[in-house]
Specification:
This protein has one domain. 51% of the residues lie in helices and 9% in strands. The strands form two sheets. A three-stranded antiparallel sheet has the order 1-4-5, covered by helices on one side. Strand 2 and strand 3 form a beta hairpin. The radius of gyration is 23 Å and the shape is flat. The protein starts with a strand and ends with a helix. 17% of the residues are buried.
């Protein structure tokens, strides 16, 4: 069971954070088979930018993330079941236990805020797992996340200060017209 081995993940960028599946991927579960069709959209792993140093948006778990997005958007199973399939499929792909449980806890926590009307999840076990994993991950993630946030803020400020200085410099000095290099197209390309 799991993803069909010879299926490659082929994506086309739609926006900076959204991709479209070019070829379908298939997941065979214990009972159901899910086919994520060509044309489905995904944001890959929904990781806040500050934490992408710890969990990149893609990796060994990419197929699982695409399947999870599909299951959440189309709803053939409950979100709780979709999250469980996400965790199980990551295990089948060989994602290390701490990473897959942290990612699962994040999507379970997100599902408490993004519920469909009438959908409930009162599982004490689920809530305890989310709290436990969150408590264990906080000291590991908080300090580096704060450092990365400060560094990103410094880079943003530096970029804006440099841009302001450049605008003042070029405003004070008229630009000289430079010749544009026009591309040369080969005749073979023009004919096809």
């Amino acid at each position: 069971m799991g993803f069909i081995d010879d299926e490659r993940v082929e994506l086309r960028a739609v926006t900076d954070t959204t991709w479209e599946l070019i070829t379908p991927i298939t997941y065979v579960g214990k009972v159901d088979t899910f086919v994520v069709p060509k044309g489905s959209h995904t944001d890959l792993a929904s990781v806040p930018g500050v934490l992408t140093w710890l969990v990149p948006r893609y990796g060994r778990y990419t197929k699982s993330a695409i399947l999870h997005d599909f299951l959440w958007r189309t709803g053939p199973v409950s979100r709780s079941d979709a999250d469980g399939i996400f965790r199980r499929s990551m295990r089948e792909l060989g994602v290390p236990i701490l990473r897959r449980w942290a990612m699962w806890a994040a999507v379970r926590a997100a599902s408490t805020f993004k519920r469909k009307p009438g959908e409930t999840d009162s599982s004490l076990r689920t809530k305890a797992a989310i709290v436990g994993i969150g408590a264990a991950a906080t000291p590991i993630v908080a300090v580096p996340a704060a450092a990365v946030s400060v560094a990103l803020l410094e880079a943003w400020l530096l970029e804006h200060v440099a841009a302001a200085i450049a605008r003042l410099y070029y405003k004070a000095r008229p630009a000289k017209a430079k010749p544009v290099n026009t591309p040369h197209i080969l005749d073979a390309v023009r004919q096809s």
